[in-house]
Amino acid sequence: QVHLIESGGGLVQPGGSLRLSCAASGRSFTSYALGWFRQRPGKEREFVAARIWASSETYYADSVKGRFTVSGDNAENTLYLQMNRLRPEEPAVYYCGASPWGAYTPRTRANEYEYWGQGTQVTVSS
């Protein structure tokens, strides 16, 4: 059974930074892609960034390119999301997901992810 546990959310001022972590366990993720999504109240879960575990290739939503960086520690099975220059419209619950179909192709739709963490709240406010 795959377990994903996010941490690192909190309150930050507009323009500030946060680093999220996702500890993954339960199996080898060599053939997986792990990704970050976010969900605002009343909205669908939205793709933010993903990393193909074996190749370390990364992919980003256009809205976060140049501000967010997804990275991972394969030895520790931990995924990170460094978020810089956070915007007032970006508060959300941020989720870590694992897709078993992401060995070679980035997965950017929520229904392509089989496992999810419980989420971590990010609040952007002055």
Verbal overview:
With 126 residues, this protein is an all-beta fold. It is 0% helix and 48% strand. The chain has strands at 3-7, 10-12, 18-25, 33-39, 46-52, 58-60, 68-73, 78-83, 92-99, 115-116, 120-124. The strands form 2 sheets. Strands 2, 4, 5, 6, 9, 10 and 11 form a 7-stranded mixed sheet that branches. A 4-stranded antiparallel sheet has the order 1-3-8-7, with no helix packed on it. Strand 7 (68-73) and strand 8 (78-83) form a beta hairpin. The chain is globular, with a radius of gyration of 13 Å. The termini are far apart. The model has no long low-confidence stretch (mean pLDDT 94).
Descriptive tags:
126 residues; mainly beta
Write the layout of secondary structure elements.
Blueprint: E1 3-7, E2 10-12, E3 18-25, E4 33-39, E5 46-52, E6 58-60, E7 68-73, E8 78-83, E9 92-99, E10 115-116, E11 120-124
Parallel strand pairs: 2-11
Antiparallel strand pairs: 1-3, 3-8, 4-5, 4-9, 5-6, 7-8, 9-10, 9-11
**DSSP helix count?**
0
By oligomeric state, this entry counts as single chain
Structural class, please? mainly beta
The low-confidence parts are none
> What is the CA-based Rg, rounded?
13 Å
Helix-strand string: EEEEEEEEEEE
Average pLDDT taken over every residue: 94
- Summarize the main sheet: 7 strands, mixed
Strand elements, count: 11
Q: How helix-rich are the residues, as a percent range? A: under 10%
Measure the end-to-end span.
40 Å
**What would the principal axes of the Cα set say about the shape?**
globular
Strand content: over 45%
